[in-house]
Every structure is written in structure tokens, then in C-alpha cells.
Amino acid sequence: MLMIPFFEMFEYILRYWTLDLAKSLENGCNVCVDMWDVTEENAPKKYEGGSVWFRKLPNDDFSLWCIELFNGRRLGDGDEIGLYWDPGSSSLVFKLLSQVRS
User: Fold this and answer.
1) What PANTHER family does this protein's entry cite (predicted)?
2) Strand partners, 82
3) Inter-CA distances, 55 with 3, 45, 64, Å
4) 2 within 8 A of 70, measured Cβ to Cβ
5) Most buried among 41, 45, 53, 76, using CB within 10 Å?
6) pTM for the complete prediction?
7) Contacts of 27 (CB under 8 A, 6+ apart)
8) Cα–Cα distance for residue pair 68/47, rounded to 1 Å
């Protein structure tokens, strides 16, 4: 799970969603989305909505779940990623920027 603070979630993702979609997330529903991993720019990989979802946390922050991507990239504390909503494709875009190896 990736934790996303409320402000960043609103600023980079929710502001591009429909009101109905944002309300369903706010009301406690898991919201499935498509996500592109563009870490290898020549070979982007798509993760379908059933395996990628957002959930609102009790403290008003959010979590992003994509077990296949996070395990495949071996993400851990201290890794730097880029993440944003692409309104043109109505999907999330992920990029691993730097990784701390332990």
C-alpha cells in the first residue's frame, strides 16, 4: 500500500475526477482505476482497474493499492516515485524515479 496525503491526493488526482467518482471514494468505497507504469519509457506497462484501487483512510489521507506493481518493482521506504492522474487517458501514471536498495 502507498499512503497519499489528503492535499496531494486532491491536488494531483481528485481534482481531475468526476464528482460522482470522488464522492464514492469519500464515502468509503474502494475506487478501481487503470494505471500505467512508465518507468521504462519504451515499454510502458498497464495495470487494469481490478488490480489497482484507492481507499480513504480514517485520518482523511488515502491509500493506493497495486500489489503486482509494488511487489514487481520491489518498492520500499525511501524510494522516490512520480504519480499523477492523466485526464487524457483517465488513468493514473506511475514512474519509479530512484530506489534505495537495502
Assistant:
1) SET DOMAIN-CONTAINING PROTEIN, TF-B3 DOMAIN-CONTAINING PROTEIN
2) 95
3) 10, 22, 7
4) yes
5) 53
6) 0.89
7) none
8) 8
